[in-house]
Amino acid sequence: MGAFHRLNLLHFTLSLVVIAVNGHNITAILEGFPDYSVYNSFLTQTKLADEINTRETITCLVLNNGAMAALTSKHPLSVVKNILSLHVLLDYYDPQKLHKISDGTTLTTTLYQTTGNAPGNLGFVNITDLQGGKVGFGSAIPGSKLDSSYTKSVKQIPYNISILEISAPIIAPGILTAPAPSSSGVNITGLLEKAGCKTFASLLTSSGVLKTYESALDKGLTVFAPSDEAFKAEGVPDLSKLTNAEQVSLLEYHASPDYKPKGTLKTTKDPISTLATNGAGKYDLT
Ligand SMILES: *[C@@H]1O[C@H](CO)[C@@H](O)[C@H](O)[C@H]1NC(C)=O
Ligand SMILES: *[C@@H]1O[C@H](CO)[C@@H](O)[C@H](O)[C@H]1NC(C)=O
Ligand SMILES: *[C@@H]1O[C@H](CO)[C@@H](O)[C@H](O)[C@H]1NC(C)=O
Ligand SMILES: *[C@@H]1O[C@H](CO)[C@@H](O)[C@H](O)[C@H]1NC(C)=O
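Above: the input record for the complex with 2-acetamido-2-deoxy-beta-D-glucopyranose. Below: its predicted structure, written as C-alpha cells.
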C-alpha cells in the first residue's frame, strides 16, 4: 500500500473547474454586508462561491436574510444550489445598465445554464424595464411572471463583478424538482476513461466501489484518479494481488465525499476526509 502513496496522482475532478485568476472574492465582499450573511453562507456551502470567483464578468443577484430564510427552510441544499445558480448572471449589470436595456427587455444567461441540467431557456433570466423606473426579474420561460424586482445596488467592481439586491427569489418552472447539477447523469467511468484513467475505472467497476462513488455523488465527489501511466510505473504493487477488501479501501481512499473544485483544494489545509475514513483502512488526505 505504501508504494501506492508514492504514485504521481493525477488530480481530476468530476466537474469542469477553472483556476481562479480574478481578484474578486465574493465571500469576502459579502462579509461586509450582514444583511446577506445567509446568502453568503449558502454560496460557501454549495461551493458556488468558488465558481463565482473563477468568472471574470458576473452579476450576483442577492437576497436578504429574510428572503433566504423563506427559501432555505422549504428546500434541500441541492435545490437551493439550483436556485442560487440562477441568480448568478454571466454578464455585468450595474444599475445604469439595468435601466438602459434596449427595447426594455432582455434575456441573460446564468450559472444554472452551465450545469447542463437546464433545457431550453430554463437557465436564462428575463430582465424587463417596467414602468416607473422599476426593473423586474423572472424566469425566461415564456409566460413566467416577473415577480422579483431590483431593490438596490450593493457593490460594483467594474466590469468584473456587480452585486445587486432583488426583492424575491427567481424561481424557474421545474427548478424545485430538478436534480442537483453535479449528480444527475454523471457517468463516472466514462469521464475517467476520457481522462486517461481506464485502469482505475475498470477497477472501480470490478470491485463494486463504483456504487459507493455514485451514491456519494449527491453531495458532490472529487476523485483523485491515477492515470494509466501511473499504474505502469515501477514499484506499483500488482493490484490484482490485493484482497477485495484492500482494493475497496484503496479505491475509496481516492475520493473525497465532497465537491472540491481546484480553487477549494488549493486552499484546504485541514485533513480532507475520504470515503475510506470510516472503513477498515483509515486514510485522511492531507
Ligand atoms: C478585473 O479582472 C481582471 C482580470 O480578468 C483583473 O486584471 C483586474 O484587476 C480586475 N479589476 C478589478 C478592479 O479588480
Ligand atoms: C475569500 O474570503 C474568505 C473570507 O474572507 C476567506 O476565508 C477565503 O479564504 C477567501 N478565498 C480565497 C480564494 O482567497
Ligand atoms: C420578458 O417577460 C415579459 C413578461 O412575461 C415579456 O413580455 C417579454 O417579452 C419577455 N422578454 C423577452 C426578451 O423574452
Ligand atoms: C459510461 O461510459 C462507459 C464508457 O464510455 C460506457 O461503457 C458505459 O456504458 C456508460 N454508462 C452509462 C450508464 O451510460
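Notes for the reader.
The chain has 13 helices and twelve strands.
Residues 187 and 214 are 9 Å apart (CA to CA).
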